[in-house]
Amino acid sequence: MAKKAYPLRINEEILTAMQHWADDELRSLNAQIEYVLRDALRKTGRSKPRPIEPIIDPEDD
What we know:
Structural class: mainly alpha
Protein name: Arc family DNA binding domain-containing protein
């Protein structure tokens, strides 16, 4: 999936809260914002669930 840069203006208190949340979950702030947006889109039925990709063990070849 390609990523695209987007400038975001955000309230300082919200940004600080998001940074603390990201720190708690060991994510970058950018990854946390993307996670929250993706979760909101999924919960409201505005995006399709991502397909589950099988884990392939290279030793099985």
